[in-house]
Design brief:
about 50% strand, single chain, four-stranded antiparallel beta sheet, about 110 residues, six-stranded mixed beta sheet
């Protein structure tokens, strides 16, 4: 089973940016859909963004226009560029192959002044 390792989180001020990375232990080339998810404190995990092998992308309304998902099949890595961050973006962020139920340890993002 392919393992995912998320990185790039941290503490950032409102309006700031972060770029998250998700490195897979195996090839993601044939993984049709890859997604980023997040779990805010005290809440359920929620979907943030997905991309498929054709380059199609889709975003949750709460991040549309601010976040960009991308994938590099050669590097077996999925990225999430997060701009104009808000305090409500504070969460542990995870990546996964959509529908696999295979989760990494996540990376903490805290947006606070």
């Amino acid at each position: 089973q392919v393992q995912f390792v998320e990185s790039g989180g941290g503490l950032v001020q409102p309006g700031g940016s972060l770029r998250l990375s998700c490195a897979a232990s195996g090839s993601i080339r044939r993984m049709y859909r890859m997604g980023w998810y997040r779990q805010p404190p005290g809440k359920q995990r929620e979907w943030v963004a997905i991309t498929d092998s054709s380059g199609y992308t889709s975003y949750a309304d709460s991040v549309e226009g601010r976040f960009t998902i991308s994938r590099d099949n050669a590097q077996n890595t999925v990225y999430l560029q997060m701009n104009s961050l808000k305090p409500e973006d504070t969460a542990v962020y995870y990546c996964s192959q959509v529908g696999s139920g295979n989760w990494g340890q996540g990376t903490q993002v805290t947006v606070s002044s």
